Amino acid sequence: MSGRTPDAEGFLALWPTLLLQRRLPGAEAANRVLRQLIAEEEARNAKLTTDYRAGNLLERDHPAIGWLRDCINKTAIDYLKRCGLGYRVDWGLHGWANVNRFGDYHDLHNHPHAYLSGTYYVAVPAESETEPLPGRRDRRLGAISFYDPRPQANMTAIAGDPQIEAEYTLRPEAGTILLWPAFLHHFVHPNLAKAERVSISFNLSLKWRAEYLPEQG
Question: If residue 38 lies in a helix (H) or strand (E), which one and from where to where?
Fold first, then answer.
C-alpha cells in the first residue's frame, strides 16, 4: 500500500516524470574553455562521441571541468529535493563529450544502469545557420525530444487533456543543463548546420546506502 494520499479535493497525481531545464551562471566564459578542451580531446580520439565508455571526462583535473562537475552536483541536489527525497543520496558521475557535425544525431535511447541522466550544452548552432534543404520544413535543428514512458498513455486523450502529447521537444541554448530520470527515452535530432553542436552528457549512478530501501506496507 502506497504512502501517497490524495489532496483535500481527492486528487492524486500519479507517476510523475520530472525534467529539469536551467541556464548555468558563468556559462559563457566556461564554454569557451570547454569547447577548446573538447577539441583537443577529439584530436587525440576521433571516436570521442561514439566511444563514450572509454573514459570519464568529469574526472579530469581541470578548472572548467571542476566548474561543470560542481554545477551538475548542485543541479542534482536541487532535483532530488524537488522529488521529495529527505535523506542523503550518494552518487558517482560519468561524463563524455558529444561533437555533432552536419547530419549527426543520436538514436532513440535511454541510459541503463544509471539513476539520473543529463546533458550540458557547450555550443549550439543558431537557427539562422541551418543549411537550406529540400523537402520537409518542420525539421528541428539540433533539438532533443523526450517521450512519455507510459506506452500508449495518449491513446484516448481528447482536446485539452494533458496526456495528449506523448513527446516533449526543446531546443536548448549554449549554457543550458538538462536533468531527467535515466529510464526516459530521448532522441537528439540531426544537426542541420555546418557549425558544430557540442555537449557534455553525463550519468549519475547511485552508491548504495541502506536508506534507499523503501518501506513496504
Answer: helix 27-44
What is the extent of the structural domain holding 71?
Answer: 20-208
For 118-166, the pLDDT digits (tens) are: 999 999 998 767 777 776 767 778 899 999 999 899 999 999 998 899 9
Rounded to whole angstroms, the Cα distance separating 187 from 36 reads 26
In-domain check, residue 11: no
**9 assigned to some structural domain:** no
Question: Based on the number of CB atoms within 10 Å of its own CB, is 128 exposed (0-12), middle (13-18) or buried (19 or more)?
Answer: exposed
Residue 149 gets which letter from DSSP?
S
Q: Based on the structure, what is the number of domains in the chain? A: 1
Q: What is the pTM of this model?
A: 0.91
Inter-residue contact 188 to 100 (CB < 8 Å): yes
Residue 193: CATH number of its domain: 2.60.120.620
Phi, psi of 28, rounded to the nearest 5 degrees: -60, -50
Residue type, 184: L
Q: Is residue 10 part of a domain?
A: no
Q: How far is CA 215 from the centre of its chain?
A: 30
In a domain, 217, yes or no: no
Q: HSE on the CB side for 27, CA within 13 Å? A: 17
